[in-house]
Amino acid sequence: MKLAFSTLGVPGLPVPDVLALASEHGYHGVELRAHPEEPVHPGLSPAERADVAALFRGSGIEPLCVAGYARVAAPGDDAAVLGELRGLLRLAHDLGAPFVRVLPGGEGPREEADAIAARRLGTAAEDASALGVRILLETHDSHRTGADAIRVLGPVGHRQVGALWDVMHTWLGGEQPAQTYAALAPQLGYVQVKDIASVEDTTPLPLGAGVLPLTECVEVLSRGGWDGWLCWEYEKRWYEQAAPLPGLLAAGRDHLVRLLGEAA
Q1: Going by C-beta distance under 8 Å and a sequence separation of 6 or more, which residues neighbour residue 186?
Q2: Closest CA to 187 of 220, 151, 143
Q3: Among residues 143, 168, 19, 171, which one has the least CA distance to residue 72?
Q4: How far is it, in rounded angstroms, from Cα 81 to Cα 110?
Q5: How many Å apart are CA 12 and CA 208, to the nearest integer?
Q6: 62 φ/ψ angles, rounded to the nearest 5 degrees
Q7: Using alpha carbons only, how large is the chain's radius of gyration in Å?
Q8: Running DSSP on this structure, what letter comes out for residue 33?
Q9: Which mean pLDDT values do the consecutive 10-residue runs of the chain (264 residues) have?
């Protein structure tokens, strides 16, 4: 498996500095938080996009994903959500990133939220296919577990629409790693790893210092023969009191490498 980290852990850090951290600490890729307060977002000009893509190529680090905030199950007009999603797809294509992350954001009756998300993802799948980018629905908020996500992904049934497994949210949803993997395996794009102290305290911790079942997740993935990406999503942006990520990256990589070795 390849290792990446999210720029959510280094808010606002310029791309060259992010790539230097990845190179220094042995990470193969970077998940790019796509938000106007970050260096990479859909508002970049063609020249700016080309510059970012060139930086990645020159570093040997891969742009894993454009992590957007389109909420595909949210109530309201489809056009605005699809417009946002298409902008993310174009950005990922221009940067050479294989994935775009979307969130569910559903409200109201479950069946209605599922239908809204499936409709929008099915429509956007054709754009994704044309651009060679895959849309990943993260296990999050209204669709926290693998079982929740598959209710949407099953009806979509398109190869360019898949799942992003956030191990914290499936755990908070009461789902065991084996259950999540069984639900998502055919559509799994990659896995976000992290660690926290408890259900009540989700402040990010160094990998291995909390309660999340990272060992079990890696074991399940290894037994299944899955060889995709593990991406450390350290939520520093939302928790100012959390320790700075750069000082944790080396130990985090070592922890993941150790888990992979034990699972093998």
Answers
A1: none
A2: 151
A3: 143
A4: 19
A5: 26
A6: -95, 140
A7: 17
A8: E
A9: 98 98 98 98 98 98 98 97 98 98 97 98 98 98 98 97 98 98 97 98 98 98 97 97 98 98 94
